Amino acid sequence: MAAQLTRHIATLLGLTCLLARDAVALITVGAVDTDGFAEDVEIAASTAYVADGANGLRVIDVSDPSAPAEIGAVVTSGYHLDVALAGDIAYVASLFTGLELIDISDPAAPSWISSLGTPDHARGLTVADGFAYVAAGASGLRLIRVSNPNVLSERGAVDTPGFAHDVAVAASLAYVADGPAGLRVVDVSNPSQASEIGFAETPGDARGIALVGGLAYVADGPGGLRVIDVSNPAAPTEVGFRTFGFRSSVNDVVVVGAVAYVADQTWGLRVVDVSDPAEPTQINSIGTPGAALGLEASGDFAYVADQTSGVRVIRISEPH
Q1: What is the DSSP string of 218-231?
Q2: What is the CA radius of gyration of the chain?
Q3: Model confidence over 273-293: pLDDT tens digits?
Q4: CA 56, CA 73: separation in Å to the nearest integer?
Q5: Which of 70, 160, 212, 262 sits in a 20 to 30 Å window from 168, CA-based?
């Protein structure tokens, strides 16, 4: 009993510290309305790269968060849904053109390098160890060699049972947010023989994923935020969840320390304490005028891809 009480007090103290640290009101300090539909955003240094639907990749200077400004863009024939950054290249998942590579060595003048189609529309991706791992809807996970950016080649694929929206990779394992089929775990140690080794069902529609340690945080649409223990990848197990009520639809999640930042396409940005994975607790939120579809958190700010209203810059903590 004493040990249990001690743990309970420690949990309360930890939450109190978290609340004190993040008690600052969330404030939208800046915004830029992109020409297209902002679907996703990634940050490198003081620059935001936005997958802007039919209006391609937009590059935004966010060095002054109160006055973000577009400094460059490249438009292709695709409909850009997701973007990942590695070195001087932006990797873009497109509904119509599959995987696209964009040279961003000069952010003010991004330029198309190459592309490779996927059997179904590319929706999400990540890049690791010379491969782009592309979540391609009904055609599942595609493994594309990108070590030579000018010559792309698919080296493997797994047709997951659901509808692949997003993917994260760690230690030769790919974790796929597979829509109605939940979380799927794929062994990619040998790309040409990639195979599913485990899964965990979720009640909603798995659309986004973040990995931290042995936990996968799944943005599960109407199912809210699901926390899944993947320390045994062959048998992932849900350990906690948080739903957000009427019409909520969670589309993306980023985890920093003990805090999850959640893009709720209906209600905006939510901030969730995940210091106890078994009981995620919302500690703050702020509405956005569009549909919050993607986000990134960096330093004192969250950057929300808010579809019809472009990118919103939201202060999430006091400046250091």
Answers
A1: EE-BTT-EEEEE-S
A2: 19
A3: 999 999 999 999 999 999 999
A4: 7
A5: 70
- What type of residue is 58? R
Q: Is 199 helix (H, G, I), strand (E, B) or coil?
A: strand
Alpha-carbon distance of 89 to 131, in angstroms, equals 13
Q: Is the pLDDT of residue 24 over 80?
A: no
How far apart CA 178 and CA 206 sit, in angstroms, is 6
> Average pLDDT of the chain?
93
Q: How much is the average pLDDT of 83-90?
A: 98
Q: Which residues contact 266 (CB under 8 A, 6 or more apart)?
A: 247, 248, 249, 291
DSSP string, 48-115: EEEE-BTT-EEEEE-SSTTS-EEEEEE--SS-EEEEEEETTEEEEEETTTEEEEEE-SSTTS-EEEEE
Q: Please tell me the distance from the alpha carbon of residue 44 to that of residue 270, in angstroms, as a whole number.
A: 23
Contacts of 2 (CB under 8 A, 6+ apart): none
Which pLDDT tens digit goes with each residue over 210-244?
A: 999 999 999 999 999 999 999 999 999 999 999 99
Contacts of residue 319, Cβ cutoff 8 Å, sequence gap at least 6: 300
Structure tokens at 139: 């055609």
Number of neighbouring beta carbons within 10 Å of residue 284: 18
Helix, strand, or coil (residue 156): strand
Rounded to 5 degrees, what angle do the CA atoms 276, 278, 282 make? 65
Specify whether the CB–CB gap between 264 and 270 falls below 8 A: yes
Supply φ then ψ for residue 193, to 5 degrees.
Answer: -125, 35
Measured between alpha carbons, how far is 115 from 102 in angstroms, rounded to an integer?
9
- 57 contacts: CB under 8 Å, gap ≥ 6: 49, 50, 51, 73, 74, 75, 80, 83, 90, 92, 102, 110
User: What angle is formed at CA 209 by the lines to CA 281 and CA 29, rounded to 5 degrees?
Assistant: 65
pLDDT bucket at 318, cuts 50 / 70 / 90:
confident
User: Whose structure tokens read 């999850």?
Assistant: 260
Query: At residue 144, what is the residue type?
Result: I
